[in-house]
Every structure is written in structure tokens, then in C-alpha cells.
Design brief:
Layout (H helix, E strand, L loop, with lengths): L1 H56 L8 H21 L3 H21 L14 H10 L6 H7 L20 H6 L6 E2 L5 H4 L1 H20 L3 H14 L4 H13 E2 L3 H16 L3 H7 L2 H10 L1 H16 L1 E4 L4 E4 L8 H14 L4 H14 L10 H9 L2
Antiparallel strand pairs: 1-2, 3-4
Helix pairs in contact: 1-2, 1-3, 1-4, 5-9, 8-10, 8-11, 13-14, 13-15, 14-15, 16-17
């Protein structure tokens, strides 16, 4: 009996010893897995911070393509996820902050003008990536066209490209990108996509103009974006309008908008803008920019001068301008301009009357488009 009890006692002891060894081994392996996982997290964090620095400061972005851009925003979203997961874990947070400190020190030594990334910056990594790209003068136009794609999917969790509209609030709220639409502007007429892309456009123009005194380089950028947006010309017109209506009250902002206006006139884009945009948006532009108001008035005169009276239709119709504008729409444009800029009315009516006189000063309908315009506007 004693030997049986002794065997049972010895067997139980061996089982307990094995269990303790197994638990110790499992604990050690689990600890090693956590350490390896944390090492991978810290490595990915450091690599993403380096990626942000490359996007903002390196000429390597000239070689970026769609896949590179997609991966860049994927890793930016990864860092946003890290913040969401660990910001309440003080132990892990301290480890990540130490890694950020080391990475920042390395990048500050290597890159002039580098701005460090803190743990509190992580939830806006996509924004920092976008802003860095926009301010990098080496960014290729092909990447800009992707960022200007108004059809970017909104669900960034399953999309390979960034949701530009989803970054709109970040762009507008950030102190370094505080250009917002004039509060009096009809924002619904602009649209959320065009609003943020207008801010993006001004950021990009500012970066190009500050890096180079050669206007042709900035014009080439605008030409390439325009070329890429040919199938969405109306949307691009809204983007331009949003850019012209951003407010920062600085000399540099005014210079950028003047440059943009000059480019529009050089590319004969204004006529298309005036026919494509809502009248309310055109009036906002006319109120904000004297140069646009004068150019807009020139477009209206051009539309009128291209009209001929159709006896069969009993109305003035356009013969050469594309897209066509009806006489009724033309008078609505003039009336809206007078309502928005009352001080302009007297001078415009004097000029229209002079043009009517040059046509023979007849008061008979159908003989002078200028006379018929005056007749309708003075009712």
C-alpha cells in the first residue's frame, strides 16, 4: 500500500513539474512573440515617419506611380491605426515615443528643414502625407492628377487610393493650410470635392512659386492638370473657382490668385467657366476679384458679338461660340452682374449704347444685339 501511494505521489509531482515547465515555456514564447511584434511595430512606425520625410523633401517622389502612392497612404493609415490602438496604453506609448524621438533625430541630421513627427501627430498621418506631397516641388503631375480625381472612393479602408474629400476637414482646420472659402460663398455650389481640391491647388501653386522664379514651370503644372481633367472639365472649373475663393489675406495668396487668373485668360478657359458654373458662383468670383469681373464682362460681350438674329426663330442665336448660350441666358448674366456690382451698371450701359450706335442706332428689334440687350435690361 505504501509503495502504491508513493508512486501516486511521485507521479503527481512529476505532472505538476511538467505543467509548470510547459507554462513557463508558453509564457516565454508568448513574451518573445510580443517582443517580436513590438519590434515590427516600431520598425514600421520608423519607416512610415521616414516615408513622410521623403514625401515632403525628397526628389525621389518624381519616380512615384499609382502603386507607390497607394502604399504610402496605406502606411499612413497604419500609423493612424497604431494611435487608435495604443494611445491609452501608457507603457506602449512610451516605447513608441522613444522610437519617434530616435527617428526624428536621425532625420533632422539628414534633412534640412525637417519637421519632427510626434505621437500626437499620428492620427493625422494621411493629412501630413498629403500636405508634404503638395509642398514638394518635385511631385510629378501624374500624381497630382490622381489626387485631383473627384471619383476617389470614400471608403479608404478598402480603397487603394486616398479619400481626398475625407481629408477636407484636416486640410481646412490645419494651421499650416488655413485657406478656407470666403464665408459668404455658396459652398453647395462649389461642392466638397472641389473645395478641398481648390485648397490643394493653392498649396501646390504656392510650393512651386516659392521654389522657382520660372513662371513657365508653374504654367506647365496647370497645363498638365488641365489635360488630365479634360473629361471632367466642369469639375475642374469648380476647383479653379474654389481656389480663387480661398481666403488667407496675404500678399502671396493674392499673387497666386492673380497668376491663376492670368493662366485662365491665356488658356481661354474663362468662357467655358462662365457657361459651366452656376451664376451664384460666378457672382461670388466677380465680387472677390476685379480681374475676374472685368474678364467675365468681356466674355459676355464676346457671346453677344457672336450672335445673329434668326428670322425663323425670332430670336438672337449664337453662330460660332461653343458651348452656345441663349439670348435669354445672356441677359440673365448681365442682370446678375448688375445686381452684384451696381457701380458697374452705368459704365456698361454707356458702352452697350455706344455699340448700338455703331450698329446704326436703330430701335427696331433684331437689328442690333446691343440695342435689344439694353431694351431688356432697362425694363
Amino acid at each position: 500500500m505504501r509503495s502504491v501511494k508513493s508512486d501516486k505521489t511521485g507521479g503527481g509531482t512529476r505532472e505538476k513539474r511538467k505543467r509548470r515547465q510547459w507554462l513557463s515555456t508558453a509564457k516565454r514564447l508568448n513574451c518573445e512573440r510580443r517582443e517580436r511584434h513590438m519590434e515590427a511595430v516600431l520598425k514600421n512606425l520608423a519607416s512610415t515617419v521616414e516615408l513622410l520625410a521623403v514625401a515632403a523633401h525628397s526628389g525621389v517622389v518624381e519616380q512615384w506611380d499609382k502603386q507607390t502612392l497607394s502604399r504610402a497612404f496605406h502606411w499612413a493609415r497604419y500609423c493612424e491605426h497604431l494611435f487608435s490602438r495604443f494611445h491609452n496604453n501608457s507603457a506602449v506609448r512610451r516605447i513608441m515615443e522613444k522610437q519617434l524621438q530616435l527617428t526624428n533625430q536621425s532625420l533632422q541630421a539628414a534633412i534640412s528643414g525637417y519637421t519632427e513627427v510626434s505621437f500626437s501627430d499620428l492620427p493625422r498621418c494621411q493629412h501630413h502625407l498629403l500636405l508634404g506631397l503638395l509642398n514638394n516641388p518635385k511631385l510629378p503631375s501624374s500624381i497630382m492628377r490622381i489626387l485631383f480625381d473627384s471619383k476617389s472612393p470614400a471608403d479608404t479602408k478598402h480603397s487603394e487610393y486616398p479619400d481626398v474629400t475625407g481629408l477636407c476637414s484636416h486640410m481646412i482646420q490645419c494651421k499650416s493650410a488655413c485657406k478656407v472659402l470666403n464665408p459668404l460663398t455658396d459652398q453647395s455650389a462649389v461642392g466638397a470635392d472641389a473645395e478641398v481640391q481648390g485648397v490643394m491647388l493653392m498649396e501646390r501653386l504656392g510650393a512651386l512659386m516659392s521654389q522657382s522664379s520660372e513662371a513657365c514651370r508653374t504654367e506647365h503644372f496647370l497645363d498638365s492638370v488641365l489635360q488630365g481633367c479634360e473629361r471632367a472639365a466642369e469639375h475642374f472649373c469648380r476647383v479653379i473657382a474654389a481656389a480663387l475663393l480661398t481666403t488667407e489675406n496675404s500678399a502671396s495668396q493674392t499673387a497666386l490668385q492673380d497668376f491663376l487668373m492670368d493662366w485662365l485668360q491665356k488658356k481661354h478657359m474663362l468662357m467655358h467657366m462662365c457657361s459651366a458654373l452656376p451664376t451664384t458662383l460666378l457672382m461670388d468670383l466677380a465680387k472677390e476679384h476685379l480681374k475676374f469681373r472685368d474678364a467675365y464682362y468681356d466674355v459676355l460681350k464676346k457671346w453677344a458679338s457672336d450672335m445673329e438674329y434668326s428670322i425663323s426663330e425670332g430670336e438672337w442665336v449664337q453662330t460660332s461660340t461653343n458651348p452656345t448660350v441663349s439670348f435669354q441666358k445672356l441677359t440673365e448674366h448681365f442682370q446678375a452682374l448688375f445686381d452684384t456690382c451696381p457701380s458697374l451698371r452705368d459704365d456698361v450701359e454707356k458702352e452697350l449704347n455706344a455699340l448700338k450706335i455703331s450698329d446704326g442706332d436703330f430701335d427696331v428689334r433684331g437689328l442690333s444685339v446691343w440695342g435689344d440687350l439694353l431694351s431688356v435690361l432697362n425694363r
